[in-house]
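Team,

Forwarding the record for the chain on the shared tracking sheet. I've put the sequence and predicted structure together so nobody has to dig through attachments.
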Amino acid sequence: MAKTADEIRQLNERIQDAGRFLELLRAEVGKAIIGQSYMLDRLLIGLLSNGHVLLEGVPGLAKTLTIKSLSQAIQAKFSRIQFTPDLLPADVIGTLIYNQQKGDFVIRKGPIFGNFILADEINRAPAKVQSALLEAMQERQVTIGETTFRLEEPFLVLATQNPLEQEGTYPLPEAQVDRFLMKVVVSYPSRAEEQLIIRQSVEGLSSPVINPVVSQQEIVNARNVVRSIYLDEKVEQYILDIVFATRNPADAGLKDLAPLISYGSSPRGSINLAIAARAQAFLNRRGYVIPEDVRSICTDVLRHRIGITYEAEAENVTAEAVVAQILDKIELP
């Protein structure tokens, strides 16, 4: 439903008020993290969209430190799960333990009962453990024995995986990867940033203390504002054009892509593009979504939702390249 100019103006004012914590949050996380502003923005989009984020990158790029620093800057409970091949589902969600004094079984909750869950190297755990985590992500509830627990909000899973080593890893199935709002590929820092990192490390400075500067209620309020950001029907059609081009590239005038795509994005791709675009508009302090918001987050939302054929792999064509071609072809509204 279209909004009037006055409604948009009022929404912009709400965004200015609800988004005041963003600069405080960035500054606080910046005490521990040099650079990586792109990764932090994507984590903030996940936080505002109530969507989980998968970070992929080589070791040593501060993925874990960024997630931990973000959770410390928010008054929320943080849990870290180091995924290993011998991990069991009970190590994640919890289990029933026999209490000899009471002569009965009692529930011991696992680390999944937190607000920020860092699933470190998620591809190192076997399928049962991955399924237990991903079910909690999707349903936002956990069942132990005969008791079902709702997970507290905000509940955000931030998972990391190392793309280099294949030994001792269990790649996430496509259907499970689809549960993540975004898959973000973390790149190396710039030369100047790495010089600062060296200085900070060599000088032996103590780890900076990250203080909580944002409350959980502020996050919940910001999410409510994000949901009310105006998404015009033309922008909706633009999102649909992009997603349908991943399924039927020939219909979009991209016949060359047809043999390179084994399957296109699911409807979750359309939903998450719309949600993440609203969060991107919020970061830009705007009460309405523009096509550039969609374009800026499109690759991160769709890269793990497009299947690449063997032919594409032989030609070194990636999902990112496919998304880039689609964005170049689809006309802006």
